[in-house]
Amino acid sequence: MILHGYWRSGAAYRVRIALALKGLAYDQINHDLRTGAQGDADYAALNPQRLVPTLVAGETVLTQSSAILEWLEETHPDPALLPADPAARAIVRAMVAIIGADTHPLHNLRVVKALGELGADAVAVQQWTARWIGAGFAALEPMIARHGRGFAFGDTPTLADCFLVPALYSAERFSVDLAPYPALIAAGETARGLPAVASAHPSRQPDADPA
What we know:
By secondary structure, the protein is of the alpha+beta class. Helix content is 52%, strand content 8%.
């Protein structure tokens, strides 16, 4: 498998976590989003949306992190990243959607660039980002407090953790106040403590900026 990504992309980070948790080997081809490398014609032929990640597995080309993670779960089901119970699976997918659909899209790199083009300065961008991360985390906190038993849901990692860990990374980058979310923070730290999750950290990727 080949993962097209970018070291600091939250969406690519999710996929790296899932691949690592499942023990799946892959190669990386990285595209610097800051320079617009994802707009290259060759990459656009793979992913017409010109976003990362894209996962290539033989003749199969997959885009959108949620779809990629669902495919990984269906084709490589062990270890499972979704609970067996249908209701529990729906709750995990709801947690995923809070981050993947309602939080991250409002502060990813292209949105931050657009805010700058509209005249927002660094302070305004930070406030915008903190607002939407905070809204997502405020929704997740009681769900994790209710359903988490070490991880975001239950006592083993799930797709919810694949989304939560990158969301925490973004929150820390933008200096979001995390004090109101103790259950969320505890679950994130548990997941981060797994060697597989640690290996997916942006700083450990081959295209990462020097420390």
